[in-house]
Amino acid sequence: xxVTNIITIFSPCLSISTRYSLIESTDVKLVGFILFLLDMxxxxxxxxxxxxxxxxxxxxxxCFKTLWARFKQGLYLQKKYIKIPNLPFIFAQISDLHxxxxxxxPTWVRRSIEDYLYNNPVEVLCVTxxxxxxxxEWAQTSLEWLNALPVNYVVISLGNHDYNAQDKLxxxxxxxxxxxxxxxxxxxxxxxxxxxLADKADKYYKVGLQRMKEMYAPxxxxxxxxxxxxxxxxxxxxxxxxxxxxLSGHTHGGQVGHADFIRSxxxxxxxxxxxxxxLKINHxxxxxxxxxxxxxxxxxLFINNGLGSHPPGRLFCPPQLTIFHEG
Length: 327
Known about the structure:
Elements: H1 3-19, H2 25-41, H3 49-71, E1 78-84, E2 91-94, H4 107-118, E3 124-128, H5 139-148, E4 153-157, H6 166-173, E5 179-181, E6 185-189, E7 192-196, H7 205-210, H8 212-215, E8 221-225, H9 231-235, E9 244-248, H10 259-266, H11 272-278, E10 292-296, E11 299-303, E12 320-326
Parallel strand pairs: 1-12, 2-3, 3-4, 4-5, 7-8, 8-9, 9-11
Antiparallel strand pairs: 2-12, 6-7, 10-11
Helix pairs in contact: 1-2, 1-3
């Protein structure tokens, strides 16, 4: 069988691999060399079984490599860079740490955050909630880790998982001058106004919305730290305020990449709500958007995918560090 026929057999696999840019040129050369050897070995054979077997084997290997490369997207820290006009310094955002005893916030993610901050000029780190998973015994661990990071300040708003640890978090944070933990209050640094809004499920959330006009600084850049992205829907309705940059988390980015595709695949057989809960999509809450950026009425929403995760973990949805810089 000539080489051209064998290449024809392999072409679907090659097209899939190159489509996702996961097969490097060296791999393509290797496949070509293997095909050449096959051609030499099969010159004097009359059976097609060996050709089919080898074809299927190589297809399986290459497809497995493609799937593994896609799976590994959930095994690294994704760095998302966002340009903000006239931003005078670089700051970063993390969310949903979920410190606990089960390892929901993996050590390798912590090390990745530390490595980036030690090697880049980030001045402020914003944390948009869920420092701990449930128990207040992890409050000190979470704050000690944040305090040790090489930034000038760490600005913190709380999330729904921080309720049980709220009192202890405030008590401990007051011992670290670098940590700025607030509910419905502001922290101004180098012409940037950071507004820490209470979580949407907090009893003080409506109080925070009422105080937005007071906390808003029209002459400064205003970044609102609000754990639940649904607060964006109410913030952009405040007509007297515009130009807000809302930083949120809470959704974990869905934890499962291509969640819309998975939902559409199964919703004919299972209710969409059950599919969402099984895959931990929406973090078991009805958030109008899982990840990405939204703009309405001059206000912007940035949803961070978070660092921690709930079982069964992340799939094609890596933990995320968002970096804001001038542009």
